[in-house]
Every structure is written in C-alpha cells, then in structure tokens.
Design brief:
With about 425 residues, this protein is α/β, with parallel strands linked by helices. Helices cover about 45% and strands about 15% of the residues. The protein contains 14 helices and 12 strands. The protein has helices at about 20-35, 40-45, 95-110, 130-145, 165-175, 200-215, 235-245, 265-275, 290-295, 340-345, 350-355, 355-370, 375-400, 405-425, and strands at about 50-60, 65-75, 80-85, 115-120, 155, 225-230, 250-255, 255-260, 290, 300-305, 325, 345-350. The strands form 2 sheets. The chain has a 7-stranded mixed beta sheet with strand order 9-8-7-6-10-11-12. A 5-stranded mixed beta sheet has the order 1-2-4-3-5. Helix 1 (about 20-35) runs parallel beside helix 3, helix 6 packs across helix 7 and helix 13 crosses helix 14.
C-alpha cells in the first residue's frame, strides 16, 4: 500500500551548535545594521512567553507516564503567534526558543500578520500506539487551552506530527470552547478545513526562491543542475518542481543514503519508489549509491539542503562547488560556515525566506477557516508564489542596499518590520 504523503514542517534542529546562539549571532549583525535601539533589541531577543507542562498519559499497559511539553511564544506584535508542534526525544527549551524566534522572522519576511511560536513534547512517537499519541495530544491541548486560540496562538504540524494530531488538537480545543474552532490550528485534514496546496507548499517556496535567485545570477533552469539533500516532504517536492522547470537533479539523499545520476534522476520515479518502500530510497535503481558527505560538495550549480540542521559547517564549506544554496531545512548552515560561504561568493537564499512557503499556505488555511470559504488549488498556488516572489525581491534589494549577504538581508527586513510596528503601536 502506498504511503500517504503529508505535510511536515522542515527539518529538525538538534543542539550541535546551540540553535539559539546561532540565530542570535545573525540577529545581532542585522540589529547593528539597522541601528536598533536598546529597548527594542531587548524586547526582540527574548520570547514573550515560555510554558512548560507535564502531561500525564495512561499508556496501553495501564501505567501512567508523564511527558514534558513546551510552548514558546516569541512575539505577537504583528498578530497571533504561529508555529509547529514536534514530537521528538531531542526536543529541548533552547531549540524551541530558537524555532519560535525563527517563526517570527519568517512570518515578517513574507509579510503575513503572524508572530512566531513553537512547541514540542519529549517523546518517541514511533514507539507509541495511536491511542497513546491521541491521549498525549489531547492532554497537551488541555494544558495549553489558555495559550492556544485563533486570535492568540495557532499551532501546526512539525516533526513527528501531522494532520491526524492537528485534528485531535482542534477537536479537544473545540470541546473547551463549546464551538467548533477550525482556525485554532493549521495543517488539518482537508475534510476538516485543511487547505489545498498545503502538502507541497514548503517545497514550492523553495522552487520559487531558487528560480528567482538563478535569474539574478544569470543561470537558466534548463542548463542548470542541482542536488537535494533530504527526500522527505520538502526535499521531494522541491526536487519535483525544480525538475519540472528544467533543472537536472543529479543527486538526492535520505536517511538510507545518497544517490547520484549524472544524466539526471527521474524524480517522479524516485517519489513513487519511496512511497511504496516505507518512505525510503534504499534499493532505488534509477541512480548509483554515493557517499552522503560528497553530495554537498558535488559539482552542481544549485545545492538544496532540505534535511537536518548544521550540515554545512566550517569543515566542508570550503569544498562546496555550487553557485547557489537554497535552504529548505531550518538551520542547515552553521553560523561558523557563513564567512567561508560569503568569501567564496556563493549566494544563499536563507531558511527564513526559502522555506516560508509552508507558513504562507498555513496562513491561507487560517484565512479560509475564518471566512468559512474554501479557495481553489490554483488560487492557493498563484497567491503563494506571488508572496514568495515579492519577499525574495525585497530581501534581494535589501542585500544590495546594505551590501550584505541574503541571510543578513532577510533578518534586516524581518527585524525592521517588527521594530517599526513596535514604534507605531507603542508596544512598551
């Protein structure tokens, strides 16, 4: 039976380089460029709210196990906070704080009226039954019923969660209010108010960002090549959509290894293969096996890291041959690698811009829920691509104005928007 592809927020972040410190190092550079005053800096560097909850769950064996969960709301000056919930054994508070801040900048970069938040529960969902996961999800929702809300804080799927968990969350929250509340969460099943175009939204944003950057560099899609690290939801859709635009995808990788075809991998065949092989490419005959470490430094025009964090570091950045890096994952480039990449003249479309297509269509889902009216898939795609294109052009113009890399320019755009809003609202 073919595996069902569902949306997952891009990329886990584990504390190799502390993710909060990595985010703050870039934040600090952008704040200095903007000449951010001390009071605004101090407000923006710290989250508005950090909630730690203990969730007692009756397991299938009759014993009660207590799970620790988090929800961090970084900022709400632009609107209700938005961010995913991840179920993973490596979830910790610094990670959630960094991801919540990233969401603030990501929403500001694409100019949607949200602040940033993130949540997580320390657990291993692969060892739990559906009933145990449901009871844990409902317990988490109840513990945070005063935090969540369509006008307060709107969760979404992330690593280890999907439409099923969002359906349980919506149902449990609705029980606490006495009315069906679909707008409290995004990433829901279509029948419960989910949006068309949501599954491929992040990968589509990566594709739009890549093509926009290639145009600035004078690169034509039909004569360009790329590799995509990570063949999950984001990477597979990015590869498929780039291939449809004429880009030759020479290499891909997943947890089972890396695969290379000099003549270009048939991405549709690769997706079909992994969907009937437990989501893995292991055994795929349309490409040759290669060393996963070599994928990042292979001789191609475009590199799309869409797997995990800190894969581009000071140790391999010198060897990267691609002219363009488009970050599908959160935090795939460590802060220590930035100076090396900049010195090599490689353009980087940063994560807070390149992978913001997902939160953009999450916003569309929320709007549709609020309106009680469903948009066509064509309308969702057209509006999402326009928002991503406009955001790219604004970040690119900012990078030219301040003569800084795209990553810093994206932070400048985001921080400036939030800071200006504080100025007009008088937030403190």
């Amino acid at each position: 039976m073919a595996a069902t592809t569902v949306y997952k927020e891009p990329a886990p972040i584990v504390d190799r380089e502390n993710p909060l410190e990595s985010m703050m190092s870039r934040f600090n550079i952008a704040a200095e460029i903007l000449g951010l005053d001390d009071q605004t800096y101090n407000v923006l560097k710290a989250p508005d709210k950090q909630v730690i909850v203990n969730i007692p769950v009756t397991m299938d064996n009759g014993k009660v196990r207590v799970f620790e969960g988090y929800r961090v709301v970084h900022n709400t000056i632009l609107g209700p906070s938005k961010g995913g919930i991840r179920y993973d054994m490596h979830v910790h508070l610094d990670e959630v704080k960094a991801l919540a801040a990233w969401m603030t900048w990501k929403c500001a970069v694409v100019d949607i009226p949200y602040g940033g938040a993130k949540g997580g529960i320390i657990c291993d969902p692969t060892t739990m039954s559906p009933g145990e996961i449901e009871r844990m999800t409902r317990g988490y929702t109840l513990a945070l019923k005063d935090v969540f809300g369509p006008d307060r804080d709107i969760p979404a799927p992330d690593m280890g969660t999907g439409p099923r968990e969002m359906a349980w969350l919506m149902d449990e929250f609705s029980k606490t209010t006495g009315a069906t509340s679909p707008a409290v969460v995004t990433g829901k099943p279509l029948v419960m108010g989910g949006s068309l175009g949501r599954t491929e939204a992040t990968g589509r944003g990566v594709m739009v960002s890549a093509l926009a950057a290639m145009a600035k560099l004078g690169m034509k899609p039909e004569t360009s090549s790329a590799v995509v690290q990570g063949f999950g939801n984001v990477g597979s859709w990015a590869a498929k959509l780039l291939a449809e635009k004429g880009v030759k995808i020479k290499g891909v990788s997943d947890i089972s290894g890396a695969y290379w075809n000099e003549e270009g991998i048939n991405i549709d065949e690769a997706i079909a293969y992994k969907n009937v092989h437990n989501g893995r490419l292991e055994g795929f005959t349309g490409a040759q096996i290669m060393n996963p470490d070599d994928l990042l430094i292979s001789d191609v025009d475009v590199l799309v890291p869409a797997a995990v964090e800190d894969v581009i570091t000071e140790h391999n950045a010198h060897d990267i041959k691609a002219k363009l890096i488009v970050e599908g994952a959160n935090g795939p480039t460590s802060a220590s690698a930035d100076p090396i990449i900049n010195e090599k003249g490689i353009m980087v479309v940063p994560d807070i811009l390149a992978n913001s297509g997902g939160v953009t269509v999450s916003y569309f889902e929320w709007v549709q829920n609020r309106l009680g009216y469903k948009w066509s898939e064509g309308m969702v795609i057209e509006r999402a691509e326009r928002i991503m294109s406009d955001a790219f052009e604004k970040v690119y113009a900012t990078s030219q104005k301040y003569k800084v890399p795209m990553r810093i320019a994206a932070y400048v755009v985001a921080i400036d928007k939030v800071a200006q809003t504080y100025k007009y609202r008088g937030g403190f």
